[in-house]
Specification:
Elements lengths: L6 H15 L5 H4 L2 H16 L17 H11 L12 H16 L5 H19 L6 H4 L6 E2 L1 H5 L7 E2 L3 H18 L9 H15 L5 E4 L6 H12 L2 E3 L9 H16 L6 E6 L8 H10 L9 H17 L6 H15 E7 L5 H8 L2 H4 L2 E4 L5 H12 L7 H29 L7 H125 L3 H8 L6 H14 L1
Parallel strand pairs: 3-6, 3-7, 4-5, 5-6
Antiparallel strand pairs: 1-2
Helix pairs in contact: 1-3, 3-6, 4-5, 5-6, 10-11, 12-15, 14-15, 18-19, 18-20
Length: 589
């Protein structure tokens, strides 16, 4: 049976560790070795004895143990003696910072945070009062420790407190700009809570075996802040693409590639970014639980593959003083994996999945640093509103502040309604940061549509006025043309009247001529009638003469050349022949 060690045993162990580290610090800091260790142990004991910090269905991850003490000590050992001079307050604020990161960041509500702060103050007052420590200064706001600001300033990587929030914001904005130049652009608003989360994630992945469990509702920025934090810490991000066919074999293959990248080639720090939505099979967590607990995932590689990897790292192991045997190389391989491969799990607290997974796979809680993403405060909502409304043209900047403030008030006012709904219906309704972003987009969409409608109406009005102006101009021109044409019409009317008079005279003359023509026509008609009668008579006579003419023709046809020659040779033709020839001569004439 394993029993929890007593406070004296814990104090003896960690006093030796911290005391050895503090040998390079000023004497005033070295004297606080026992006080720091005892205050840490006192804090853990007070937490374990406080009812609100006991695990429950809602607070199942409130699991405080000696691992938390080790995490605090790990942060304290990350300091440089040359940077903590001028008294012990600066180093004690590192202790306060680590206590907040280890104990306070996993708390889910404001009341638990206040209770935790009271425990910190109680432990500090008890153990640091001899050094004349001012508790107000010790627990002052904006106590954030980072190692990336010193790098950003061109110095070596050192674990230092920030000078102020403005310095932190400037550095993070520069890093965000670098990230956007390298990867897909992220439109992040770096309000204070977001910057604090970035510092927390950077702190976790900066430590060996550091794994972060980010708990928050959808849209709170877990993935975006994780990507930026890993970029700042110099980690390459690895993600998996889960589809309908993605299964255990695919995850195993991806984990093999991650292990090789972390331990063999290139052997550089990597971050495995995973979301709860990518856990398509609960068996995925079996691999992750083994990775978090020891790094050893059974049957991840075949024996021949392990031998190949051991051969690739044998020189590194030899340089590190590791014996050249299989077990030692295997442990060296796992140590490199745990040092260089950091799991960042983004999980939503909504529903029972998080609680069930935490119970079935305890390493998700005990071997990861929990960072709870709380609802955005009013100033964060206002900053986000100002950022996303900035691309909308407004008459003045004051209107932006009013709009952002109004949206923040609307978003926060829903919390009370959610509480009443839960009390009445026993059902949860979550108002997430994503809801706030949707509210902004909804407003922008409506505003754009309304402005477009107004612009269309304005354009139609302007076109109407322009058309009316053009019509008026044309009407004025037509009036001028009409006046000119009226003069021309008057002249033409006069000419027409004159023409009418002339036509009238000519008509009268034409009437006289017409009367004459009528008389002539009557005379002509009578002559024509007479001619018709004569013609009829002539036709009758002709009809009568035709038979005779035909007979004559037939008689003529009987004449022949010899007959005519005979007539010609007559010296004195008979009288009958003379008469006939005369008659013929008359007819021929």
């Amino acid at each position: 049976t394993t029993f929890t060690p007593t406070a004296d045993i814990i104090s003896g162990i960690y006093s030796q560790i911290i005391g050895h580290h503090l040998k390079g610090f000023e004497m005033v800091v070295q004297k606080q070795t026992d006080a720091i260790v005892n205050a840490t142990i006192e804090t853990l004991q007070l937490i374990l004895s406080t009812p609100c910090f006991l695990p429950s269905a809602k607070k199942f991850h409130y699991q405080f143990n000696l691992r938390d003490v080790a995490n605090i000590v790990q942060g304290l050992l990350n300091t440089d003696p040359n940077l903590y001079k001028g008294g012990c307050m600066k180093y004690l604020r590192v202790w306060a910072h680590e206590c907040y990161r280890v104990f306070n960041d996993r708390l889910i509500n404001h009341s638990d945070m206040q209770e935790m702060h009271g425990i910190f103050e109680k432990a500090a007052k008890k153990h640091f009062s001899g050094a004349g420590v001012d508790l107000v200064e010790l627990f002052a706001d904006d106590n954030l420790m980072t190692s990336f600001i010193s790098v950003a300033m061109g110095n070596d990587k050192k674990y230092l407190p920030i000078r102020d929030i403005a310095q932190l914001k400037q550095t993070l904005e520069e890093k965000l700009a670098e990230y956007n130049e390298t990867f897909a652009e992220m439109n992040l608003v770096l309000f204070q809570d977001a910057m604090e989360h970035i510092c927390r994630i950077c702190r976790v992945v900066d430590f060996p075996c550091g794994n972060a469990l980010l708990v928050g509702v959808g849209g709170s920025g877990k993935q975006s802040l994780s990507r930026l934090s890993c970029f700042i810490a110099g980690l390459d991000i690895i993600t998996i693409l889960v589809n309908q066919t993605y299964g255990m074999a695919d995850l195993k293959l991806d984990l093999q590639l991650m292990y090789v990248k972390a331990a063999v080639k290139p052997g550089s720090p990597h971050a495995f970014l995973l979301t709860d939505g990518q856990i398509a099979d609960e068996r995925f967590l079996v691999f992750l639980n083994d990775f978090l607990a020891s790094g050893n995932i059974p049957d991840l590689f075949a024996r021949e593959e392990y031998d190949s990897h051991f051969g690739a790292i044998r020189n590194l192991a030899k340089a590190a003083g590791v014996p050249d045997d299989r077990d030692a190389l295997f442990q060296f391989f796992l140590d490199r994996v745990r040092k260089n491969l950091h799991l960042v799990l983004c999980h939503s607290p909504v529903g029972d999945a998080f609680r069930i997974r935490g119970r079935k796979f305890p390493a998700l809680i005990s071997c990861m640093v929990v960072d709870e993403f709380h609802p955005w405060p009013r100033d964060a909502l206002t900053d986000v509103g100002n950022r996303f409304l900035a691309d909308i043209p407004m008459p003045d900047d004051e209107l932006f502040e009013k709009l952002a403030g109004n949206m923040a008030e609307i978003h926060l006012s829903i919390d009370g309604a959610n509480a009443r709904y839960l009390e009445a219906e026993r059902r949860h309704n979550y108002t997430t940061p994503k809801s706030f972003l949707e509210l902004i987009n909804f407003y922008k969409g409506i505003l754009t549509k309304r402005r477009l409608a107004v612009e269309n109406n304005q354009e139609r009005l302007e076109k109407g006025l322009e058309i009316m102006e053009q019509v008026q101009t044309k009407v004025d021109g037509l009036k001028e043309d009409l006046q000119i044409q009226m003069v021309q019409v008057a002249e033409k009317v006069a000419a027409t009247n004159l023409l009418i008079e002339q036509v009238t005279d000519e008509s009268e003359k034409a009437a006289v001529e017409e009367a004459k023509a009528k008389v002539e026509a009557d005379s002509t008609n009578k002559l024509a009638q007479d001619a018709a009668e004569i013609k009829a008579v002539a036709d009758g006579e002709l009809a009568e003469a035709l038979p005779a003419m035909k007979a004559a023709q037939e008689a003529v046809d009987c004449l022949t050349k010899p007959a005519i020659q005979e007539l010609k040779n007559l010296g004195k033709p008979p009288p009958a022949c003379v008469d006939v020839t005369k008659a013929v001569l008359i007819m021929l004439k």
